[in-house]
Amino acid sequence: MAKNTRELIIRALITLAKKNPQRSSFTMTEIAAEAGISRQAIYQKHFNNFEDIIEYIHEETNQHIFNVFNKYCPSNDGDPISFLADHILPLIYEKREVISTLYTTQVDPCWKEFLRGIYSEWVLKNVNYQLKYNFNKEDIAYIITTMAISFIEVWIRKDNPIPPEEYRETFIQLSKTSLCDYIVS
Hints:
By secondary structure, the chain is mainly α. It has a single domain, classed as Tetracycline Repressor, domain 2. It is 71% helix and 0% strand. It has 10 helices and no strands. This is Transcriptional regulator TetR C-terminal Firmicutes type domain-containing protein. Pfam families: TetR_C_8. InterPro entries: Homeodomain-like_sf, HTH-type_Tx_Regulator, TetR_C_Firmicutes.
């Protein structure tokens, strides 16, 4: 029951965020009313405040994804872009409603920075890259992570994103394309 109640609470927050995309917080009373449970039920067994709910969403949304990322082995899994396309895009797609809401509303204004922080660390440890243009390794990891996050955001924020199997090749091509190639003079 506790897991189901937490899911009700998360679903309620996502619904509220979609109805009010400019709001960056909601009261526990609003969330409880939307979930059809008492505010006390939220406080007693689940969350102390709105920030706890956001933290839980971060954990729930990213834990499985991060676990799969941590299993990445270049000698077995090939290049990191194809690995992401093959193994991570399907996981993102499974959680598309929550992830899309985090991208398209203000319910979690720190969402992208949260992602950048976690996945830049992974890039630093797992991706080989060239240091050019007076950028250090942290700068390059930031650029790589930000680009990947952007390509995912453009896809997953759509009302009906295409399945990951269909987006896979687009994602890989976007990742391999120079910024100059996007611009037509």
